[in-house]
Each structure stands twice: as C-alpha cells, then as structure tokens.
Amino acid sequence: MIQANALEKSFGDFKAVNKIDLNIKKGECFGLLGPNGAGKSTFIGMMYGTVQRTSGQLSVFNHDPKTESRDIKKRLGVVTQENALDESLTVMENMMLYCSFIGVPKQESEARVLELLNYMNLSHKKDALIQTLSGGMKRRLVFVRALLGKPELLILDEPTTGLDPAVRHLLWGKVRELHQSGTTIVLTTHYMHEAEVLCDRLVILNHGQIVAEGSPQQMIAQHTPGYVGIFESKHRELIKNLINNRADIHFHEDASGIYLRTPTLAELTKLHSEQGMIPLQIRPANLEDVFLKLTGQELSNEA
Amino acid sequence: MKLSHFIESVKLCLHITRRNWTVYKKDLIANISPTVADPALILVSLGLGLGAFLTNVEGMSYMQFLAPGLTVATALFTSFFESSYGFYVRMSFENVYKAMLATPIGVKEIVFGELFWVGLKGAIMAVGVAIVLALFGMMTNPWLIPALAVVGFLVALPCGAMGLLATAWVRNINQFQTVYSFVIAPLYFLSGIFFPIPQMSTPVRIVAEFFPLIHGVRLAQSLFWERDIAQAFSYSGSILVIQSIVLCALAYTQIRKKLIN
Predict the structure, then answer these.
(1) CB-closest option in A73, A145, A146 to B104
(2) d(CA A93, CA A87)
(3) Residue B24, pLDDT above cutoff 50
(4) Residues A251, A197: one domain?
C-alpha cells in the first residue's frame, strides 16, 4: 500500500530522511519510532505531499504523492501532530467544515459527525467552542476529524503525546478497533509501550535511516533478549565485580539506577538470593531497551 | 478529466472562503466597525475641518473630493490586514492550514480561496462605505453604488496578494509593521485620495501607477462624480486585472514555499 525505495529528503546539507526502503501492507498497523529529529514526521509529510522528496521513489495507493497528492488525500485520515483545530469555531462547525473539505455529501455530514463524536465520547460537547475543551478532548476531536472520510489509511502522528493515561488507553482501544475493522494504520510515537501495544510491525529510525525493522517481539528477541533488572546505584561496585568479563550481561547506568540485562531471569534472581541485592524492578526486556540500544543512547557493556 | 479537476478545485476554494465567512460573522460588529467608522471619521474631520480652507478642489468641496478615495482605502486596509496578520496567524499560530493540507485541499485552493474571500470582503466594504457616503450626499448618482463592488474587488485582490507576499517574506509577525510603514501607508497617502492625481509630483505618480490603489481611486472617482466612467474602467480597470493576475500568481508561488517543504 505504501512503498518507498531509496527515499531521501534533504534540507540543505541535512538529510532528514536518508535512503529509506519501506513497504507497508494493507491492513497493517505500522510503527515509525525514533528520537526527535529522526525523520518520522518528514516521512509522514512525504506520504501526502506536504513535504516533497529530494530523490528516490514513494507511492501511496499506487499514486505518487508528489504529483497526485489529492488522489491520496481523499483516501486517508491524519491525526496531525498539532491539533490545529479552528479555535474560533465550535466542535460541530469544525467538523462540518472538514466534511465539506473531504467531500462528505451534505445530507450525510451531520449524522456522520454525530456518530463519530459519540464514538469518541464527545457528543455532549458538540456545541462547545474549541477553546473550552481540555487537551484530551481536543485530541479525541482530532481523531473524529481524521475519521470523517472513512479513511482506508489512518496516519497517527504522535497521537497521544501529552495525554493522561485514561485518554491514552481510550485512544488505544479505538485504534485497535479500527485496525481490526481493516483500516491500515501508520503510527509515529515516542512511547515504546504504545508501539508495543498497537503495532504489528515497526521500524526504528535514527538520523534518517532505518536501524531496525520487524515485529516488536522479533526486535526484542533480536536486539535485547532476556530480562532487565533495575538496581540502586549503591550496588555499583558489587555488580561490576560480579559481571566482570560477562559479555552476555549488559550494564547501563543512569539517574534512575543501574540497568542489568541478562539472558535469563535466573541470573537476576540469583543476585537477589545470593548477594542480597533487592532489585527495584525486574521485567522482561521491552521495546524501550531496543530503542535505547539502537539509537545510541545506551552505554556500552564495558562497565 | 482536466475540467473535473478544475471544478473540484474551485469548490474547495469556496469552502475556504466559506470557512473565513463563518469565522468572520461571529464577530460581525467588531469586524465591520473600523472599516466603516474610520472613513466616516476621516470624512468628517478632514472633510469638514480642512474643507473649511479648501473650498474648491477640482471644482467641488473637499468632502466630495475625499469621498471616493475613502471607499477604496477601505478595500486596501481590509484586504491587506486580512492576508497579512490574519493569514499569518492562521498559518503560524493556529496551524489551520496544516490540518487542511491533510485533506483534499492543496496550497492552490488555500491561496485562491483566501484571495477570493479577501476580494469579496473588499467588495462588500466598498459598497458599505459608499452607502454611508451616499447618505451624506457625496454621490451624484447613488444607482452606481453596485459598481463599487467591482472596484472594491479589483483593489482588494491585488492588495490581498501583496499581504500574502508580505506573509511569505516576514520572519515574524512584528515585521508587518515595516511593510505597513513603507508600503501600505505611502500607498494610502500618495494615491490621489487626499489630493488630485494631476498635482502629484511626476516621479511619485509614476511609482504609484505600479500599485493598485491609484487605479482604484480613479475608478471610484469616476463613479462618484459620474465622470469618464468608460475611460477609467478601460484603462485603470485593465491595469488592475493585470496587477491582480501577476500578484496573485506570485503570492501563490511564495506561499507554496511556506506550506510545502
């Protein structure tokens, strides 16, 4: 459905996207992860023509976004990074306006808006001015806006940034439902847990390049298999002595403590039973560990 | 195929125009007040005040001389402010266009939809002001008032395009003040509104000819005074059309650079 070959975008000397190959299939929930400035939003912009690629190929629904962006935009919905709602209009006015932009037949518009407002638990706010809505409500309304055209492809550009856990979980539920009903989803996020929960497949971008690709489970198995124990910093010397010369144990320390990643859970529980160190937390390795490792933010294992 | 694309594009432009109207009418009184009150104030203060000393300008009272220019000035201000401050805020602070560009709307529809809105506003304002002035007895033939819609539109369009160009060029919202001081204010004062065009110094007049306002003033004067209407429209009218085409096309290319990376 979305095919990129050697896709590149430069701003002057800076390569925001540097020769990316991607293939996103119909019905998939696909994640684009990466640190700030990794090229996620640039890629999204190229998909519907607000960013023009420098070189390479890109096709969305078999259309070239450079020349046929309208054909593409008719079939997708975007949850933009900024809400970009018309602050001077009411909820209903905003949505009716977008119905006209998208080309929803006039007689269907109102019913569709009401249905989606209901779906996002916003019916009671239909006549409210945007200014009076909370952050979570605005975000839900942006979802409504993105869904007005019954899109085949839904682009979610950091959909839950800055939201409280309740709204985040609500939105995850909705995204899952849409995914199950066959909508293709492209998601960018900084929340690894979000990607793990929602995505079938994802890529991690760093400096405009893909550094890893696969399902969340595959990526964890491939890059950071095992378990992670977090210990207080006061155990530093003891831990260093114990893991001396063990290449299979990863050591990483930051302000929140010492992170040890071991191939098996037993290694970590042993530290407790034999050394009396009580871990702050023990958990299976997750996407966050993969992310930190691959985007160069984890220290080397030479402790 | 081509035609259907064009029709679709025009429809989308009109949606942008309608969006602006929806927002505008919410604060109708606040939005209309300055555009109608300012010319009335100038007419009274300058027309009556200065008019006491200037009893014969081109064979009429100073108030009568001033009236047509004020309708055109309204079109200038309403269009320039809308497409400079107004557009800039929508583009950079409210991000309205970012969300629109994720729909079938493209930069072309945004720019021409905005310009059509600005033209329309210019037309309505010019007519509104002309009605007020006609009530003061400033028009020899009030039946010509509808024709001022054409003048308002033809002035607002290129002036709105100038506002868009300013929007594309400024680096922050304060810089509009420079544009205002060095382009808009001189246009206002040096386009034959306050003193007769033939009395302007030649270099100033030649420069003024390249801008829309002086042509709008000629058209309005011809209508208000019922003098050489056909001649004014064939000369100044065609120049305004040409200026509109050039400036609008230029504005489109520049705004496109702002909205598409």
Answers:
(1) A73
(2) 11
(3) yes
(4) no
- Judge whether A101 is closer than 8 Å to chain B, CB to CB: yes
Residue A134 DSSP SS3: coil
Tell me, what amino acid is at A24? I
Measured in angstroms, the CA of B25 and the nearest CA of chain A are apart by 11
The answer to whether residue A49 neighbours chain B at the CB level (below 8 Å) is yes
Q: What is the mean pLDDT of residues B220-242?
A: 93
Q: Is A131 on the interface with B (CB under 8 A)?
A: no
- Please give the residue range of the domain that contains residue A255: 226-284
- Reply yes or no on whether the pLDDT at B1 is more than 70: no
Q: Tell me A129's DSSP state.
A: B
What domain count does chain B have?
1
* CATH number reported for the structural domain that contains residue A151 in this entry: 3.40.50.300
Of the candidates A88, A93, A101, the beta carbon closest to that of B100 is on A101
Residue B146: band (very low, low, confident or very high) from pLDDT cuts 50, 70, 90: very high
CA closest to A96 among chain B residues: B19
The first and second tokens of residue B154, run together, are 């033809």
> At which of A220, A240, A260 does a domain end?
A220
Residue A121 domain flag: yes
For residue A197, the one-letter residue type is V
Quick one: tokens of B124?
């309505």
